[in-house]
């Protein structure tokens, strides 16, 4: 095949398959290692949280890798190529996300010593709220994980010729294997390795592009002249797809729903050996997020510099934008055996890190929220059940990848739903932590209302896409092409828009803030209307440690005592848990010790 540069596009060679296979083998070996060294694991807590003995550095790298999927490796550079480097504004949202997570959410979850994030919802509200939150998380994670496995495999298959289902099944099986064998420790340390592979893949593309184009200055100059360095867009119009404000504000809410409350991320930082390491892991992770973002943005600038005069998508050399990076790799690295394999390994490292995090998190919430409360299994049995659930969800996610292959255009809508669900859940947890007067009726009403509105707007945006002037890609050129081409027609048409057109045209980055704000507002209004609500919290469960010391900021309560609280449950409201010494009851809220369980 000829490339726009006038050279021949390479193909996947034996050396590339060897590099890819080596990455899979190393990941599997980590699982075997921790299965052997931790073979004396006797509790589900050891399996799911690493015995809460992990340190900041590996956890921080795992936090970075967990949601930097292959979609990031392939889609971010393509985004810069088509829309410009404005996605670099995500760097601002990362800062606010880490500050709020470390100062608001982390102290609550860490000091309660919970394994599942959704345990908090029962402690603060009731069991129904906990189960609804758990089920929403399970549904969104299975959908998202299947797509994370399938989408990059499809893009890479169409460009490199790598076997589609061989790649899907091998990555799914290896990921399931080391999750089931090694638990959270294996997941964390494979994430560390995979983050290194991701950055190495970006580095290979960047270095070769810089050499070909004659230096970094040339790439920056090409991007500037092509309008790709659009970093001065401060338009406050919420209908604009990407501006400083949509990426900074919307991005903060989206990433807070990931780092603040998502089980996959929370499970990592609460596995640290103390609060200092947990907080430090979040801030070191900030450096990792910036590194991945800068690498992906500059890779997109390299992509534009190489193809600025002859766009491979417009000319029909590729069929979709997410094939741009694999095409560039085969074009400029095809003559270097093993380097295309390194980039494919980088893309799949993104998938493996996300899928393994999801499998481990799904196993945790299933055991802690669904199985443990309704059974009397021993810790040893729960440990085996946790491994069984990892295996079950691994197989289910591979099956979901198969279903994703039949979904076609629904893929983008499904990925959007992942963010749409996260917003209302963020609102629910924020309501519980920062609003002492919120009760269970308000919590459920807020969650359902926020979810309904987010889904309505998200689905409406798929049916009535935003106006072209709000989301039109930057121009691409074919003036420098020296071969006959078949162009893709880019026809911008507008459907007849309903009265709510502006709401449907809202930037997709504002779907999450919309769901969060509605959940909080409705939750507060309903809580005020329904009044104070007593709530029994069973301390004779394994949700809390046997004794919680007030000196460390916990409640000074003994095990086997049920407590009935008012709305401002002092154990689980941020106003109280964050007190440096002891517990002070929030003014006007009731708490009394009960000898017998009293229903609220």
UniProtKB/TrEMBL annotation:
Any single GO molecular-function term of the entry would be: organic acid:sodium symporter activity
Transmembrane ranges?
12-36, 56-75, 87-110, 131-152, 164-184, 196-220, 243-261, 282-307, 390-411, 417-437, 444-464, 508-529
Keyword list, A-Z: Cell membrane, Ion transport, Membrane, Sodium, Sodium transport, Transmembrane, Transmembrane helix, Transport
Intracellular or extracellular location(s): Cell membrane
Show the GO cellular component annotation of the record.
extracellular exosome; plasma membrane
Q: Name one GO biological process term.
A: propanoate transmembrane transport
Signal sequence extent: none
Is Chloroplast included in the keywords of this UniProt record? no
Instruction: Write down the membrane topology.
Output: Multi-pass membrane protein
Task: Report the sequence similarity comment from the record.
Answer: Belongs to the sodium:solute symporter (SSF) (TC 2.A.21) family.
This protein is called Solute carrier family 5 member 8
Organism encoding this protein: Fundulus heteroclitus (Killifish)
The major lineage groups are: Eukaryota, Metazoa, Chordata, Craniata, Vertebrata
């Amino acid at each position: 095949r000829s490339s726009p540069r006038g050279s021949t596009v390479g193909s996947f060679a034996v050396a590339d398959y060897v590099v890819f296979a080596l990455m899979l083998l190393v990941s599997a070996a980590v699982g075997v290692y921790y299965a052997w060294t931790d073979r004396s694991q006797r509790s589900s807590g050891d399996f799911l949280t690493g015995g809460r003995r992990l340190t900041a550095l590996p956890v921080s790298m795992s936090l970075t890798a967990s949601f930097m999927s292959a979609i990031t490796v392939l889609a971010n550079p393509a985004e810069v190529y088509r829309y410009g480097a404005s996605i670099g504004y995500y760097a601002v949202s990362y800062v606010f996300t880490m500050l709020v997570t470390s100062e608001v959410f982390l102290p609550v979850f860490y000091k309660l010593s919970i394994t599942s994030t959704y345990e908090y919802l029962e402690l603060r509200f009731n069991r129904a709220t906990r189960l609804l939150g758990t089920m929403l998380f399970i549904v969104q994670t299975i959908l998202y994980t299947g797509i994370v496995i399938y989408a990059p495999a499809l893009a890479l298959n169409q460009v490199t010729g790598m076997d589609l289902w061989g790649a899907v099944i091998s990555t799914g099986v290896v990921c399931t294997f080391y999750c089931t064998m090694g638990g959270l420790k294996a997941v964390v340390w494979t994430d560390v390795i995979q983050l290194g592979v991701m950055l190495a893949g970006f580095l290979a593309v960047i270095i070769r592009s810089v050499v070909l184009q004659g230096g970094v200055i040339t790439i920056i100059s090409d991007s500037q002249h092509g309008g790709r360095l659009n970093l001065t867009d401060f338009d406050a119009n919420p209908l604009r797809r990407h501006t400083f404000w949509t990426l900074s504000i919307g991005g903060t809410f989206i990433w807070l729903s990931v780092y603040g409350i998502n089980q996959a991320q929370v499970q990592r930082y609460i596995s640290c050996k103390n609060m200092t390491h947990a907080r430090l892991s979040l801030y070191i992770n900030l450096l990792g997020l910036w590194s991945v973002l800068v690498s992906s943005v500059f890779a997109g600038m390299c992509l534009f510099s190489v193809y600025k005069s002859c766009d491979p998508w417009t000319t029909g050399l590729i069929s979709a934008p997410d094939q741009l990076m694999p095409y560039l790799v085969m074009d400029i690295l095809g003559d270097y055996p093993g380097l295309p394999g390194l980039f494919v390994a980088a893309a799949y490292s993104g998938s493996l890190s996300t899928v393994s995090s999801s499998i481990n998190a799904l196993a945790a919430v299933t055991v802690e929220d669904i199985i443990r409360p309704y059974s009397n299994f021993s810790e040893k049995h729960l440990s085996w059940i946790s491994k069984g659930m990892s295996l079950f969800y691994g197989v289910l996610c591979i099956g979901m990848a198969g279903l994703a292959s039949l979904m076609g255009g629904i893929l983008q809508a499904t990925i959007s739903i992942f963010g749409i669900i996260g917003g209302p859940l963020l609102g629910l947890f924020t309501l519980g932590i920062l609003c002492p007067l919120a009760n269970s009726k308000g919590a459920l009403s807020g969650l359902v209302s926020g979810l309904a509105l987010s889904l309505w707007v998200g689905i409406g945006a798929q049916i009535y896409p935003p106006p072209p002037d709000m989301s039109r890609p930057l121009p691409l050129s074919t003036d420098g092409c020296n071969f006959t081409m078949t162009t893709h027609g880019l026809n911008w048409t507008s459907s007849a828009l309903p009265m709510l057109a502006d709401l449907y045209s809202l930037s997709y980055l504002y779907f999450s803030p919309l769901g969060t704000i509605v959940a909080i507002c409705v939750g507060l209004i309903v809580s005020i209307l329904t009044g104070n609500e007593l709530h029994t919290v069973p301390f004779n469960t394994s949700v809390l440690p046997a004794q919680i010391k007030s000196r460390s900021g916990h409640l000074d309560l003994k095990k086997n005592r049920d407590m009935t609280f008012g709305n401002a449950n002092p154990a689980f409201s941020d106003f109280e848990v964050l007190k440096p010494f002891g517990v002070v009851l929030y003014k006007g809220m009731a708490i009394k010790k009960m000898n017998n369980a009293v229903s609220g």
